[in-house]
Design brief:
Elements lengths: L10 E5 L15 H6 L1 H7 L3 E4 L3 E3 L8 E7 L6 H13 L3 E6 L9 H4 L1 H7 L2 E2 L14 E4 L4 E4 L14 H16 L4 E4 L23 H6 L12 H13 L6 E4 L6 H4 L11 E2 L11 H14 L7 E3 L8 H4 L5 H13 L3 E5 L57 H6 L4 H14 L4 E4 L5 E6 L2 E6 L4 E5 L1
Parallel strand pairs: 1-2, 1-13, 2-5, 5-9, 9-10, 10-11, 12-13
Antiparallel strand pairs: 3-4, 6-8, 7-8, 14-15, 15-16, 16-17
Helix pairs in contact: 6-8, 12-14
The structure holds 1-deoxynojirimycin (NOJ).
Length: 467
């Protein structure tokens, strides 16, 4: 599949696998379900799919608590299904990216349960420090057998690995190679800015007025529990593994790094991540000045050759058609036009292309174990009308939202958000020129990409693309 730097202008489609398509009626989306919808993704025009974790898991955090890094989670399919996915996707020119979870394992992973690795592979302390997890709960839990506390930057069922241990680094070199050998085109890397911690496990300072919103919410600045400079050694090491392949494999980071000047370091000298995700955009207000300044700040911070990646929804946060657009399709089209005409790569979350909104879920049906459940953005994909939405024939693991908004109806309507997204994806392939800002009146954002001029009119919720 041609261009080794395909990701530079790519549309990457994020699949929340459990909620994409269920092939066997157990109510949980699965790998054969993805295969059954590849023709749709090919019609839409995406370059790659990024699958949330498909490796064996205890499912306290739906795949982000891995019990076996080289086995497929049985509820999602088999290794044969996965090999078929790679082959079927490749035959349609679609690359497959997986989610790598290096910061922590499941509490049930053999590394955590075996006396031989338990102590040295994980982070332990006799007295916990003041660190708070990303889910705003204490980051330490007491282990009776060890008589000591283990660190978990997320849930207690997700103990953090000790990335100062060279054996852990070597394990992951092999895990990366295992999937690359199978034909996986790259990884989205979970929590990669967190993997290394202060060796002395010093307390974090409290967050103060003026600190970033993410730190204020947590009450402390994670200066010792994340963002350690040595993380870049590990990223270079992974890049070296990825570069052994032809074409070199893609590394895209889930990089919650508040300052653009710090985030840009994740590109290294072109020898770390190709696509560190820029989350600031998701937190911007929806208006011309706010979004323009957020996007331009990032574009101006990038070094020559660094490729930005734009995204506005994912499985952890409210979907942008709800968060930004109040379900107004004109605003959703505006947001999609922005995401797909800015230079660089774009990640669409499943459902973005039809303007799918968050779903209000009855408390008894919530399935996320995080203190603030993230299920509202994770509900199953509505393929057609009806309470099962063509997603499953059984009882869906999470209830579907509004199936009036669905893929089948929108495919049939040339004026739908879906068909607009498809046209924008096709346009993106033609946009090769650099971003050139243009003067604009109030609440408009105008720019040029080569011969194409884009006018995003936030006042009138309208888009005009010329050229
Ligand atoms: C970030 C993932 O996106 C999220 O879903 C997960 O809970 C945490 N990392 C922990 O792996």
């Amino acid at each position: 599949m041609g261009d080794p730097e395909w990701w530079q202008n790519a549309v990457i489609y994020q699949l929340y696998v459990r909620s994409f398509a269920d092939s066997d009626g157990d109510g949980v989306g699965d790998i054969p379900g993805i295969v059954s919808r590849l023709d749709y993704l090919s019609w839409l025009g995406v370059d790659a799919i990024w699958c949330t974790p498909v490796t064996a898991s205890s499912n306290h955090d739906h795949g982000y608590d891995v019990t076996h890094y080289r086995a497929i989670e049985p509820s999602l399919g088999t290794m044969e299904d996965f090999d078929r996915l790679i082959a079927e996707a490749e035959s349609r020119g679609i690359r497959v990216l997986l989610d790598l979870v290096p910061n922590h394992t499941s509490i049930d992973h053999p590394w955590f349960t075996s006396p031989g690795t338990r102590r040295s592979y994980y982070v332990w302390a006799d007295r916990p420090n003041n660190w708070v997890s990303s889910l705003h709960i204490p980051a330490w839990s007491y282990d009776e057998a060890e008589g000591s506390y283990y660190l978990h930057s997320y849930l207690p069922q997700q103990p953090d690995l000790n990335w100062w241990n060279d054996d852990v680094r070597a394990e992951f070199d092999d895990i990366l190679a295992f999937w690359f050998d199978k034909g996986v085109a790259g990884f989205r890397i979970d929590a990669c800015y967190v993997i290394l911690k202060d060796r002395q496990l010093r307390d974090n300072p409290v967050a103060r007025k003026g600190d970033h919103m993410w730190d204020l919410n947590r009450g402390q600045r994670p200066v010792h529990s994340a963002h350690q400079p040595e993380v870049h050694d590990v990223l270079r090491r992974w890049r070296a593994v990825a570069d052994r392949y032809d074409p070199p494999r893609l590394l895209m980071g889930a990089t919650w790094v508040p300052e653009p000047a710090d985030l840009v370091a994740y590109y290294g000298k072109g020898d770390e991540l190709q696509l560190p995700q820029y989350f600031q955009l998701l937190f911007s207000d929806f208006g011309a000045d706010a979004l323009r300044s957020c996007a331009e700040t990032w574009l101006e911070t990038l070094g020559p050759g660094d490729t930005p990646v734009w995204l506005a929804s994912n499985h952890d946060l409210s979907r942008f058609p709800t968060r930004w657009c109040d379900g107004d399709d004109r605003k959703t089209r505006l947001a999609l036009a922005m995401l797909l005409t800015l230079p660089g790569a774009c990640v669409l979350f499943q459902g973005d292309e039809i303007g799918m909104e968050d779903t209000v879920i009855p408390v008894a049906r919530l399935r996320d174990s995080a203190p603030w459940p993230r299920d509202a953005s994770r509900t199953p994909m509505p393929w057609q009308r009806g309470h099962l939405g063509g997603f499953t024939t059984g009882e869906p693991w999470l209830p579907l939202g509004d199936t009036e908004r669905n893929v089948a109806d929108q495919m049939a309507d040339p004026d739908s958000v879906l068909n607009e997204t498809r046209r924008l994806i096709a346009l993106k392939k033609r946009l090769t020129g650099p971003y050139r800002p243009l003067p604009a009146e109030d609440d408009h954002w105008r720019y040029r990409r080569g011969a194409v001029a884009v006018d995003l009119d936030f006042a009138g919720s309208a888009v005009c693309i010329d050229g």
